[in-house]
Amino acid sequence: MQTAIGVFGNESSADEGNTDNFSAKPGGLDCPQIMAVELCRDRLGVRPCDMRRKVSECEALFPSIDFSMMDGEDDSMWNPDIREPEEEIAARMVLFMNWLWTRPEQDIVIVSHGIILQQILKVLGNDCHQAVSSALCQRFDNCELRSVVIVDKSPRAVDSMLCSPRDVAKQQHVLREEVSN
Predict the structure, then answer these.
(1) DSSP labels for 54-77?
(2) Can you give the pLDDT of all 181 residues of the chain as single tens digits?
(3) Rg of the chain on CA atoms, in Å
(4) Interior/surface letters 110-138, b for 16+ CB within 10 angstroms, e for the rest
């Protein structure tokens, strides 16, 4: 969230070279909407630093971010005993991308942790040439930015069941139960 605000948030703070003022509302017409999306968060489990704060705490720290996509006040996805395997992250990123296809915006930036971005690219890079897929799916360096154009070439209609934030969150919980069994 700090990275998103630092790069895309409050223009007046950025103009002054101050990216520490996360409590300010974005200013100007060029500031995009910033959304916190539960599905696109860091790897889940075991490490306390990967457990998210209460939504109300995040809203107080980052009032310019839309937290309506969060699955409740407390972190119901984090498990202190099980570290989320890459297969589950990839499955979660499929759900995230299904939701993302329902968005009306044409230009979307995803700001997340390297493992999350890497799994998104692995999921999407399956039909790319091997050289392209290898380059895209390399581990991210700290603070690395990559520009990628993603095109949905499938003939399918977007699953309307995944349009609602609550439906997407419910689907994630069902997926976790299926993988656990």
Answers:
(1) PHHHHHHH-TTEEEEESSSSS-SS
(2) 888 888 887 534 444 444 444 444 444 456 788 999 999 999 999 999 889 999 999 999 999 899 999 989 999 998 999 999 999 999 999 999 889 888 888 888 999 998 899 998 888 877 778 888 888 888 888 888 888 887 777 665 444 444 455 555 555 555 556 655 5
(3) 17
(4) bbbebebbbbbbbbbbeeeeeeeeeebbe
Residue 59 near residue 67 (C-beta atoms within 8 A): yes
pTM: 0.72
Find, among 85, 135, 142, 84, the residue nearest to 113 by Cα: 142
